[in-house]
Every structure is written in structure tokens, then in C-alpha cells.
């Protein structure tokens, strides 16, 4: 049984930082591509950051230089360090698992991800 669980969300002021954690269980964690997505009210779900089995990272233009994705295979956890947060970062953030191998052009294709956590809310105030 595959299970993903996010934690670390909260409310911060503009310019603050948060670190999100995704704990995975039920599969061999190190072999899969994984990603962080977010969805704000009235907007489509969008990819934020991704990481593959080799540790190669990808980021949405809107978060480059501010967010960092990482993982600890031994602990079956994935992280999203978010610095210099902005009000437009306010959203529900989701951890998701894709396939073992995936084209870089598909890294933020929602249809490529088949397992999702329940989400953790991030709210950034002005």
C-alpha cells in the first residue's frame, strides 16, 4: 500500500520560510520520480518542484532561487525548503509520486503522477 503524508505547512508573513516534509511508505522510495505541487482557490494545480531517482532537480520559474527540493532515501522522506515566501505562494501543497523514469518535459504533468498525499496548507500574509 502506497501512502504519502505531508507536514510542515502553516501561516507566515511575507519573506518568511517554511520547510515541508513528505513521508512515503509502501514502496521502494529511492526508485521513483517525485514532486511537489500546489493549488490555490480558483486556480489549476501546478507543479512546483520535482526530483528523480538520481537526485536531479527541476523547478517552476515562479519559485527558482527561493525553493529547494531534496530527499533522504534512508528516511523515505522528501523536503521542500521554501524561503522568501510571497503572498502568491499561498496554496495547498501536495506531495506526489510519478514513475521510475520520466521525461524532463513531463515533470509537472499531473497525469504522470498516480499517488498523492492529502496536502498541507501554506498561507503567506502581506
Give a structural overview.
- This protein has 126 residues and is mainly beta.
- 0% of the residues lie in helices and 47% in strands.
- Strands 2, 4, 5, 6, 9, 10 and 11 form a seven-stranded mixed beta sheet that branches. The chain has a four-stranded antiparallel beta sheet with strand order 1-3-8-7, with no helix packed on it.
- A hairpin with a 5-residue loop joins β5 (46-51) and β6 (57-59).
- It starts with a strand and ends with a strand.
- The mean pLDDT is 93.
How many helices?
0
**Order of helix and strand elements from N to C terminus:** EEEEEEEEEEE
Helical content band: under 10%
**Proportion of β residues?**
over 45%
Helix/strand/pairing category: mainly beta
Shape: globular
Q: Mean of residue pLDDT?
A: 93
Distance between the termini: 41 Å
CA gyration radius, whole angstroms: 14 Å
Say how many strands there are. 11
Keywords summarizing the entry:
single chain, 126 residues, mainly beta, seven-stranded mixed β-sheet, four-stranded antiparallel β-sheet
Short overview:
With 126 residues, this protein is mainly β. It has no helices and eleven strands. The strands form two sheets. Strands 2, 4, 5, 6, 9, 10 and 11 form a seven-stranded mixed β-sheet that branches. A four-stranded antiparallel β-sheet has the order 1-3-8-7, with no helix packed on it.
Amino acid at each position: 500500500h502506497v501512502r504519502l503524508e505531508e507536514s510542515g505547512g502553516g501561516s507566515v508573513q511575507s519573506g518568511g520560510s517554511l520547510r515541508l516534509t513528505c513521508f512515503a511508505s509502501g514502496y521502494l522510495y529511492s526508485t521513483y520520480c517525485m514532486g511537489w505541487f500546489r493549488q490555490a482557490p480558483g486556480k489549476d494545480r501546478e507543479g512546483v518542484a520535482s526530483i528523480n531517482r538520481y537526485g536531479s532537480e527541476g523547478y517552476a520559474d515562479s519559485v527558482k532561487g527561493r525553493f529547494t527540493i531534496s530527499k533522504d532515501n534512508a528516511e523515505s522522506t522528501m523536503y521542500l525548503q521554501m524561503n522568501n515566501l510571497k503572498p502568491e505562494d499561498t496554496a495547498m501543497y501536495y506531495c506526489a509520486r510519478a514513475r521510475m523514469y520520466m521525461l524532463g518535459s513531463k515533470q509537472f504533468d499531473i497525469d504522470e503522477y498516480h499517488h498523492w498525499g492529502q496536502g498541507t496548507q501554506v498561507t503567506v500574509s502581506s
